[in-house]
Amino acid sequence: FIAVQIGFNRTTATAQRKFDVSVCPREERSRGTVRRSADKKVAIVSWTEGNTQPQRDGVWMAGIDLTKPAQGADQQQVIAWKQQIDGRNDQDGIRTYSMRMKMEQLVKPDGTGDDRYFISYGLLRGNNNTNGKGGTYYKQMTGVVKADLTGVTFAQPLRDIRAHERRTDQHPPA
């Protein structure tokens, strides 16, 4: 984690490396997201885990306690919690994997941050086992979680938004 101090006149900024921590040791193909909690005491992290194509180790979230004293490399003690949100799914003879996790912090009407986060990821069946490209989204899962130092809970349950979209190729009943 890097601390950034912005000068009074906002024309200067100083960055200082504080500590290193690894929450996702098997991640090299996707880009995780990090957001600071509303109280600035926790870094909330989300990512897709796995070094396979397609990634098969699921979508995850973690909380990093920024109040603990830590400096240097390998500071695993600052991980307050780590939780898998979804993983492999078998339904109707189709195996899908949860991947491409995205997360955005919700904002209160006054513009300040909230401890709720909109999350989204896909249930995909990938076809990249032989270096061929492709794959199919079967579901696009979305929900709202509350994440803080104590863990993550669902404020709005996950649901497949594709199941609720209106298709242009369908005609309304006569």
Can you characterise this structure?
- The chain has no helices and 11 strands.
- The protein has 174 residues and is mainly β.
- Strands 7-8-9-10-11 form a 5-stranded antiparallel β-sheet, with no helix packed on it.
- It is globular.
Low-confidence stretches: none
Main sheet characteristics: 5 strands, antiparallel
* Arithmetic mean pLDDT: 80
CA-atom Rg in angstroms: 19 Å
Task: Quickly describe the structure.
By secondary structure, this protein is mainly beta. The protein is built from no helices and 11 strands.
Protein traits:
single chain, 174 residues, mainly beta, five-stranded antiparallel β-sheet, 11 strands
Topology readout:
Elements lengths: L1 E5 L6 E5 L15 E4 L5 E7 L10 E7 L13 E8 L1 E4 L2 E14 L5 E14 L8 E14 L2 E10 L14
Antiparallel strand pairs: 1-2, 3-4, 4-5, 5-6, 7-8, 8-9, 9-10, 10-11
